[in-house]
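Researcher: Next entry in the queue.
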Amino acid sequence: MKANELINNEVNVINIGLKSFTEGIKKENGKVLDTDWLPPASGDTKMVDLLFKCELHAEEINKANEKAVNIIMSGQPVLKGIKQAKYVVPGLKERLILHAGPPVEYKDMCGPMQGAVVGAMIYEGWAKDKADAEKQIANGEIEFDCNHHHSAVGPMTGIITSSMPVFEVVNETYGNYAYCTINEGIGEVMRFGANGPKVISKLHWLEDVFAPALNEAIQKTGGVNLKNIMAQALAMGDEMHQRNVAASLIFYKTICSELTEVIVDNPHGKEIVEFLVKKNDQFFLNLAMAASKSIMDKARNIPMSTVVTALSRNGVDFGLNVSSLGDEWFTAPCLKPVGLYFPGYSEEDANPDMGDSSITECIGIGGCAMGCSPAVVNFVGAGSVAKAMEYTDSMAEITVAQNYNLPMPNMNFVGVPCGFDIRKIVSSGILPVINTGMAHKKAGIGQVGAGIVNPPMDIFKQALKKFVEEYIDK
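Model: Structure for this entry, 474 residues:
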């Protein structure tokens, strides 16, 4: 093209740099297409160097990651029953309290978690009130550890103590077990830090009335395949972190005949069924969490794998585990979810992100599957169904594979994005999307909204640095 033609004709520009580069062209009515491009790791030269070192070993890393996601996709979580935690949760003993997220001491816990700890001690009969509980804690009479160290998970505060009934889920492909408490329903609940008489009474009802009946029904079924339920629920609009309506009803349908036999002469039969079917749309969440934990635990400890095996938060710190780095935690301060608040509440009321429930995103449900859950969009403030689909598409950019066992019908039956890769996250700058409930920062008030949150990028950078130190620079 001659110079005068370039000057006199309409200018069309594709820009792959800063948008400010094109300001002059736009002023002269030129046409500009800005590409969504950033340098690797947003130009962080230290991270770029680490990514380059990983690229030199890409074949070996990719092979390890393929092994990890094959383990994830082949997992078959089956609910075997409900038992008291002290009989099945590994390493759980009297006066040991398990909690959500990475390890944290009582003095450093957020308000809701401290409230739940006090409630758990009253429930167990270890303390008569808050003052008594805190005196025992100060004297070193109570121990704390995170659920993930004990093959367990729990929503929000995630508290598990010895007397609590827990779902017992086995990954039948590999034989390992995982555990989670029973969802308490809505209102005043311990998972949001409440510890009043109603909360304690509900926990005892779950232990003494509900759990024995449901366990007997589960035993009669011979075990409930949770993966089958999850696949069906995806087709019915659940993503199984914030929306579990379909999954909860499918679960009830699966065990209803056996449960009817069990409760036919039970004076509490009606309230058992009402709690399961009418009063607890999130009932399946805890089952999805235990299923996800049983799946992800077998993807741990694979040398050279950069696949994330746990994302978890305690209301103060957000923690990350990576397959090749075992149980080592990489942590940074939690962020607050962005979303919709219930009437009368605002961002000022919300506690930073909390709970083990982000284990669901690790297998590809929850935020990763938001694109096939239109009904959850407004609840978490995602904006639109199209935006939710964009979230799901973006998760495919930072994962290793798409899980064909969990297809998304309204997205052409592609599988959910599966296996977060710390290399892809650091390189692209795209963070995992987690949709979550929001707790009030004060104990006992409960849920104040729902929204979307991302883990802090720093935990992925920490993990990448440690991975290179352990496997490449040695």
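Model: The longest strand covers residues 399-408.
Researcher: Noted, moving on.
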